[in-house]
Amino acid sequence: METRQETPYLTVPRLRRVPGLVHGFGTAAWGPDEVEAMAARDGYRAVVLKQIHSDAVHVIDAGSVERASSSPLRGDALATALPGVLLVVKTADCLPVLLVDEARRVVAAVHCGWRGTLRRILDRTLALLRDRLGAPPEGLLAALGPCIGSGCYEVGEDVRSAFAAEGFSGALFRARPGRPGHYLFDLREANLASLRAAGVPPSNIVSDAACTHCEPRLLSFRRDRDKDARMASFLGFLPS
Length: 240
Fold this sequence. Notes:
6-stranded mixed beta sheet, 15 strands, 2 domains
């Protein structure tokens, strides 16, 4: 994954090779306002969620594009087969995941915080792509953007226990030295495991190892304590 010189967001070489696809993972210089300005300039309709750390996934069709422009949808994942629609998710430590079925021209954008990951929002999105939009996991490309890294993401016993109760691997958590009852959590690996288990080919998965907490060009809620600032990740196919 890399930052193209002319853009303030990160792009994925494999996704850049998909005809008609536009995408990006936001940096500190690229938030929802910048995406919406780009969409208006280039003839897209941007759909930006009111994110609630849930397992709610929305399929965007012509009617919901109109509704979302006046009343933002509540949830944490978006999917569409419509050209000319930019799906947008916002992050500042959580993990953004972009999914593409090149052959069927279907896309999805997922906001994976620890709560959404616990509720298996990525699994729900993959099932919806397969069952409602005809895009099976084995035909998907998946790109995981920057998020807080496993060396910086400290959580408590309540989080570790909740993941264990839902059947996640205990290897996602490492004891925090000198802090009993505290653990370092690998949010990225939790979602990579979901992609692999669902049948997305490992060769179709690209993951950026950048840690939002460590990289000054990225936003981190835990580091910056800014409740409002968010990076915006986006993808969609060119308007027809």
